[in-house]
Amino acid sequence: MKLLVLLSVVGGVICNWENWWTYDGISGPAYWGLINPAWTMCNKGRRQSPINLDPSYLYYDSRLKQVNVDKQLVSGRITNTGQSLVFRVEDGQLAINISGGPLAYKYQFQEMYFHWAGDDETGSEHTINNQPFPAEVQIYGFNTQLYSNLSVAREFPGGVVAISVLVKIKDGGRRNEQSLEQIISFLPEVTYRGGSKRVGMVSLSSILPNTDEYITYEGSTTFPGCWETTTWIVFNKPIYISHHDLQQFRRLRQGDRLHEKAPLGNNLRPQQPLNNRALRTNIALPAQKVGNPDCADPSTLLNYQQSAWVNSVVLPSN
User: 39-42 — which CB contacts under 8 Å span 24+ positions?
Assistant: First the structure.
């Protein structure tokens, strides 16, 4: 019955997919793969994101090197899409390239998505050992050596890189770099759906945490159409914003000025099963080899001491 209602409603908006999907109700994540045939991976895919990063499933891969991100500045626009807050780089600028790490190609930064909730505990899409964070910043880039733009690249293997930056709350003292503060300062100007504001001179590298350690896996975009062409890089340290900054995000609305609707937050796709995918990391911590230590290959799966690894990721004090 729900499906019949859904299909009848969608018939009137079939040409406007980008405005139709939501994070709840009959246009929410459970129905993304039904309301648009091009988004079928949202319901049928086996390499979907986001996921829980379980320390007991990590592989240590000594081949994983440092992730390189260009340091030049770019300008772009932050937009309240009614589903999320998105920063998109303007055309015609020097590219911010992302390379190294698990990547075989060079990728160009294009979009940045912000995820948060109505409370201080559950605003991230990815979790570590089932522990969520107050918010998450997701940075998307496209493979410039094979594809012309992000819209094309996300349709093909190896097309997309996504960097996850987990966010914690810290009041007082230095919290984050100027570029993120600059974006937050413009949020009152994009309170309602369709609101857009130009933000100049953003440094992507300054928004990233100060660490070379990360976890990587093969997954999808966390929004429709859930394309399974994405290499995820989840950094091993969070960045910090104040409680006041997080409240600025919570003031954003899903609707326009006349029809505000609900708050924009809680823009979180439910977590997806791992389905035997590899979780690789360059974090070298004490470990115990699985099986007989006399016959184990050093490159095989390592059973990380969970308490040590979780403390290093989830519980940093500064």
Answer: 39/224, 39/225, 39/226, 40/225, 41/220, 41/225, 41/226, 41/227, 41/228, 42/224, 42/225, 42/226
Please tell me the distance from the alpha carbon of residue 251 to that of residue 253, in angstroms, as a whole number. Answer: 6
**Same structural domain, 30 and 174:** no
The percent of residues in the chain predicted with pLDDT above 90, rounded, is: 75
pLDDT band at 179 (very low <50, low <70, confident <90, very high): confident
CA distances from 163 to 102, 138, 166, 216 (A): 12, 6, 10, 9
- Examine residue 106 and state whether it is found in any structural domain, yes or no: yes
Catalytic residue at 60?
no
Question: H or E stretch including 110?
Answer: strand 107-116
pLDDT band for 111, please (50, 70, 90 cuts).
very high
pTM for this prediction: 0.86
Contact (Cβ atoms closer than 8 angstroms) between residue 204 and residue 174 = no
pLDDT in the model for residue 16: 60
Q: d(Cα 47, Cα 220) in Å, to the nearest integer?
A: 7
CA distance 183 to 200: 9
Check residue 266 and give its pLDDT: 93
Half-sphere exposure of 137 (CA within 13 A, CB side): 23
Minimal CA–CA distance to 164: which of 101, 80, 90?
101
Measured in whole angstroms, the distance separating CA 12 from the mean position of its chain's CA atoms is 31
Given the residues 147, 192, 217, 304, the one annotated as active site: 147
Residue 311 has which token pair? 């403390």
21 and 100 fall within a common domain: no
Asked if 82 and 29 sit in the same domain, the reply is no
Tell me which residue range forms the domain holding 15: 1-44
The residues, any chain, with a CB within 8 Å of residue 266's CB and separated by 6 or more, are 23, 24, 116, 117, 118
Is residue 38 within 8 Å of residue 47, measured between CB atoms? no
